[in-house]
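Shipment paperwork, digital attachment
Item: protein structure file
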Amino acid sequence: MAGGTVVGLDIGSQLMKVVELKKSGANIEVTALDVAPTPQEAFENGVIVDSQLLAKAVKELLSKAHVSAKKVVSSVSGQSSVVVRVVEVAQMGPKELQETMKWEVERQVPFSAADAIMDFTPINRPEGLADGQNMEVLLAVGQREMIDRHADMILKSGLKPDAIEVEPIATGRALLEVPRNVTQAAGHTVGIINIGASNTDISIFRDKLLAFPRNVPMAGDTLTRAIADGLMVDMQTAEQYKRELGEVIFTQQAPQNQFGSGAFGGSEGFADFGGFTDFGTNQQSQFPVDPASPVTQAPEIPAAPGSGSMPFDFEAMGQEDAPLPGPTLDPFNQTVDPTAANPFAPVTGATGEPAPFGGEAPSVMPFDQTVSQPQSNLPVQASTQPAADPMREQLRIQIFNAMAPYLSELAQEVRRSLDYYRGKTSDAPIHELLLTGGSAKLKGLAQFFEAELGIPTRVANPLAGLTMGIKNQSQSVLDEMATLYPVCIGLAARDLVAVPVGPKMPKAPKAAKAPKTPKAPKPVKTK
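Attachment content:
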């Protein structure tokens, strides 16, 4: 176990996150931590387009966070430029494995292998391998140009790169290895759902080792666009609505799915599903991607009773009670079903058996519309809480209606991933799901996933297992922002928890040193 102070840097499509960690006895201490917006003109679709501008923004973030260390571990991501796979091959030695992985790169990546940087590591499970059993290898491949730009940006920001890692490994380390007081039984399997701004990482870990990674191109921005389109507001207002009023409403009937039950947990098979996003295809995402049409003046969020804020004008918006439409196309089922089924209903087959996609169907409909009546022998008491503002409540429902189809679609993507993994591992159980990332704090989301998938689900706090040594941020702010930091915490903890398990990209090149001035020749001695 190495020591020292290490910086973890995570640059996302919307936010840059940084943390500084050091060993403090048997514990790991946070000595600096902060977040800042990612300059959009410098970072597009996970690719650095202006390393100088991004380096300047990173410098400002480091100064703002009071980061003093220079050694940094950073991450790279991007659907078209980074590929993470767990592949199975016959048992073989290191030299033969090196050659085999070269062929795997040809098979797995959407770009030329000549333009790729590769790393891999065998996954050594605690139970070992039986004779004739395939071995698992964790493979990470990055596009060379993307890696070079990332390394150049790190150097320009004044940091000294130690390693470049992939995000699923870092997230798993932060949530499963950093906490020291958590013990797990052999074979314990955890699904980690990291919901970022533009992508969601679905990663399954068995015995704290990555067993299945998948990236889905829908996340927080998908929900924001849905709100913007449905309520006819700009993206900034939609983001504010999502943060302040967004939640999963379990007593509200979700908008009906115009394509039947197949779109949100139907019975179609997954023979064509490879477990990962299809790279290099011409298939277009069916999620909302176009910016919403701006309005002249975005309405303010109506405040709670007594605040004095103006209520939301629903008549002017024309959105009184009509539920918002669901997605126009199901990417996994092209057959139109005229039956308008509730996408939030428990998924079962025709015989009442558990549906082929995912766990057991929940025994209670997650969006139950029935309201229990109070027993007549109970005393009726006046509520001490102020009455809800009907306009604010109506807006809250409309926000949920806009998000609901995409929340259900995301749950379906998680279900598909879990069932694909189960199918490859003799129906191995998934013991729990951990939600993290910026959108994981959406109110009611953990309960929604648990109801949909039948698996215990909670929002993970990557700061919980760390000693806090910073004084410039209150505990309430840290708790509110905690789900943003799993990647950078896992990066910084790489050499602080144990010998790293997992591939990393090659170390970034060091800055070139100025050539030494040649020494003057010694004078020739004369007799």
